Amino acid sequence: MLSAVGIIAEYNPFHNGHAYQLQLAKQRTNADVVVAVMSGNWVQRGAPAIVDKWVRTEMALAMGVDLVVELPVFDAVQPADLFARGAVRIVDQLQCDSLAFGCEHADYDFAQLGRIAVDDDQAHFRDYQQPYPALIQAAINEQFGININQPNDILALNYAQAVHQLDSKMQLVPIERVGSRHHDADFNGALASASAIRKAILSRSIKTVQPYLPAPVYSLLQNHNYLDLSAFWSIIRYQLVMTPLDELNQRYQMTEGLEYRLKEAAIKHAKFKEFMSAIKTKRYTYSRLQRLLVYVLLQANQDDFIHHDPYLRVLGFNPTGQQYLNQVKSQIDWPIISKIDQSMLKSVIKTEFNAGMLIQMKNGQYQDLYRHPIIKK
Amino acid sequence: MLSAVGIIAEYNPFHNGHAYQLQLAKQRTNADVVVAVMSGNWVQRGAPAIVDKWVRTEMALAMGVDLVVELPVFDAVQPADLFARGAVRIVDQLQCDSLAFGCEHADYDFAQLGRIAVDDDQAHFRDYQQPYPALIQAAINEQFGININQPNDILALNYAQAVHQLDSKMQLVPIERVGSRHHDADFNGALASASAIRKAILSRSIKTVQPYLPAPVYSLLQNHNYLDLSAFWSIIRYQLVMTPLDELNQRYQMTEGLEYRLKEAAIKHAKFKEFMSAIKTKRYTYSRLQRLLVYVLLQANQDDFIHHDPYLRVLGFNPTGQQYLNQVKSQIDWPIISKIDQSMLKSVIKTEFNAGMLIQMKNGQYQDLYRHPIIKK
Question: Do A369 and B267 touch (CB under 8 A)?
């Protein structure tokens, strides 16, 4: 019987910090297998991954992940709580014994924090005039005297809440992040955040990021069409201009008349940056707005992103990962998808297929149809 | 009282043949005013005009047209009979005394042919296994021993039918086309068809067409982003791939399950030419399919292209044209639109605005909002 540790990741791209996390996750859990649940072609902050999911699966496998399973677009492009819930559900389905995650404060008892945040009388939060996550943070601060206000601590809390809500037996393994905070734009030793790395690749060149990437990853990153949401601006603009308001307002998360604001700005502004500045208000973060633009691109409504049947999509594995998959197969309730044919395009995979076609139309590489999992010998 | 001759045109672009037609139309009718009803940004065969409607209005005014009125996209991007009906209705509203048009056989009595084709017992046509225009042509051949099988003769017949159907008093003025048949791909003296000219501009260079264009037109044609339907391929493909089948099949003219054929081909083919070959069958002409792609681009349903309220949109005039417009204004039943503000975007102008935004997103020039008619001194 192989034991497994699960990791939730975007690997956008895989960098030295991820390698460090992977190593510690193995050491601390003594697991035989590392399972990564990885965002597919679109990531949580509402953007395409810088390279497609197949290249990023290659990276993960090259760096020691044994099994890569896709976090579907309807779970990945979501606010942190829904992202965490979708991902944890998959890790749990995969029968992992533990879940390892990076955070700023590995000394916090996340299992306890997750329990308390969820079980606390939620009615009492409703009195506040603040968003729900802020309320939970305030409650935790009141009860424990600690601050959950850094990005990876917040995500860790979301994982812990999801594990508790799902009544999962998975052990939580917080791993202290080193060297670089998530949003650091500058490089720091051999560790740089994924966001700083992406920025450098997109605005400068791939060469500038070599020190911050494991050698196999650097090699796999060569010669791709590096994508950002701005690569889809002409299509986003087209959609916002052309689609009638009463259809635009059907899009997932198109609340409070945002469709008027978006359409007006799209008619007026020819450049993506100017458009984004025009729609930004204090009320909405850039991530919230960018995710909304992804839903517009996908022509996706509430049903596509909330009421969908679950499935497991295998992106790649090595012999250990394959052995583990065989071991747990019978305990998995969901359909396991390893290749996609035409007949499945109306099925659960529909939204993922559309999300993949957006990428395929840019990079010319098949994303779903005709693709088999990557097998690393 | 000024008398006026109407011309229905696309001026895509204006060429020596159009100049010849204009001159003869004036000579033969002795009209004081030439009114052109011109396709806007999109033309009958299902494509964007090579340059936008404002540049083409400048051309028409430079070459002696006194008043240019827009043929709205819902009339322009239609099969020949609906194109003719929409255009003739506008010429008639503009109180023109006559309608001049080019044709291969100016000796035919089009007024009579138009009457007969329409009034003949249409039930008797239903026995045939042929499309309606072919049946009319057969009936005319039977009755008069003449063949209406060349493109401009066919269009002329459609004009004649529309004039008769509308019970218009306009006189028909057929003008023999010289030098070049409509579809000739090669140049012939100083006359070349608009289609040969477009092809040369798009595939070779603007310089190669200088001999076939009046000097003012050649000058106005410089330094534009020359458009063809293929310029919109990435958006067409996006729409076909992303839009659900049950929404695609709501598009105007999306009949007989064409949505399946189009979606499948769009998923498969990355190049426009290959896509077009894949969807082409004997059943549908390229023009029919290209028009369908324009409806897809416009996200336009039956209502947008069939059940719309009429209006007159003035694109440009010289002092004579302005005087004429003032003379006939009180006899025009439709709203006359000369400039468009935000409040009109939900009105009759909606489809035209969308059609213009497609062009504006390519060439960066305002097409409808903030545009006033061009006034030539």
Answer: yes
